[in-house]
Design a protein that fits this description.
With 197 residues, the protein is mostly helical. The chain is built from eight helices and two strands. The longest helix has 30 residues. It comes from Mariniradius sediminis.
């Protein structure tokens, strides 16, 4: 082996040795990143990951299905894609970016990458500082409803997606597709679960 080949091989081995830790850390980072199991119709993959993380934090899986189990994130993407006009869609994108920027400012990461404790703390802060829906009488808001903001609107849509899903309506809530006789005054203990609509 001549001197030139020896230097070249030594440099190649040194470069490989230096690059292995970086390559391994890259593989490790990829393995921790949650991947989408669905293809968004409107949202980008990062925005869809945000929605998935949001709905999972609001309604995680316990002894009953969570929001991800009933595909609330897919539902929300479809609502944005098929019912929002261009201006409203642009507003959604801007609000997601703003939400993530605030999370990054407070915790150093975007919302989907935060620990469960940090996600919970951040949402509790949003809950405390977000405008509320007006009280309702027979389904009608009392007084003029001011805009409730992105957090409250997304939380409301998450609950709507969850409680209107077939899985929750049939298997978690009480379900009677053809109601029987009307009983106006019965003990609460006879009612059991809340009823699906």
């Amino acid at each position: 082996m001549n001197r030139r080949d020896a230097i070249r091989k030594t440099a190649l081995m040194a470069g490989t040795a230096a690059g292995v830790p970086s390559f391994l850390s890259l593989l490790q980072a990829c393995s921790k990143q949650e991947r989408l199991t669905w293809v968004p119709e409107f949202l980008s993959e990062d925005q869809a990951r945000f929605i998935s993380a949001f709905v999972d934090t609001i309604l995680p899986k316990t002894d009953t299905p969570g929001a991800l189990d009933v595909k609330a994130d897919v539902f929300i993407d479809l609502v944005y894609a098929r019912t929002y006009d261009q201006k409203a869609q642009e507003n959604v994108v801007a609000e997601i970016e703003k939400f993530n920027a605030t999370a990054k400012e407070k915790f150093g990461k975007v919302f989907a990458e935060l620990s469960l404790e940090d996600k919970t703390a951040f949402l509790k802060e949003q809950e405390a500082n977000s405008p509320k829906f007006n009280p309702r009488v027979w389904g009608t808001a009392v007084g003029k409803q001011e805009p409730v903001g992105f957090y409250r609107g997304l939380k409301s849509m998450t609950l709507w997606a969850y409680f209107s899903s077939e899985e929750i309506g049939k298997n978690v809530l009480s379900y009677d597709p053809i109601p029987g006789e009307y009983k106006g005054c019965i003990p609460l203990s006879d009612v059991g679960n809340s009823w699906s609509l």
